[in-house]
Design goal:
Structural class: alpha+beta
Largest sheet: 2 strands, antiparallel
Helix content: 10-25%
Number of strands: 4
Strand order of the largest sheet: 1-4
Order of helices and strands: EEEHEH
Length: 101
């Protein structure tokens, strides 16, 4: 018999958006309800290293990192406020199991 453990979260379970700086490993988190989508932090508050770009990539079909984050937050807010958002679930990795491998 196979046993499987899954971790599922609802959009309403997402409480914060966080970033981990690839340079200094500082972690910055902000509650979703307190985020100002017009002022997405794109540099580390600790070491000031850029982690997201507001520049439009050279390809016309690609949008900037900051615009992608803004779009994600807009969609997440809409999903959280819709009835179907109560029934939607996202599966995330089990970090405990991942560390044991």
């Amino acid at each position: 018999m196979t046993s499987e453990k899954r971790i599922l979260i609802a959009p309403q379970d997402i409480l914060k958006l966080g970033f981990e700086c690839p340079h200094c490993a500082a972690i910055y988190t902000v509650p979703i309800d307190k985020l100002d989508r017009d002022r997405i932090i794109s540099t580390c508050p600790n070491c000031h290293e850029a982690w997201a770009s507001d520049e439009q990539p050279s390809s016309e079909n690609v949008i900037s990192d900051v615009k992608i984050v803004r779009s994600f937050l807009d969609c997440l807010q809409k999903i959280r406020n819709r009835k179907f958002g109560q029934y939607m679930r996202f599966e995330i990795t089990d970090m405990v199991q991942q560390d044991k491998v």
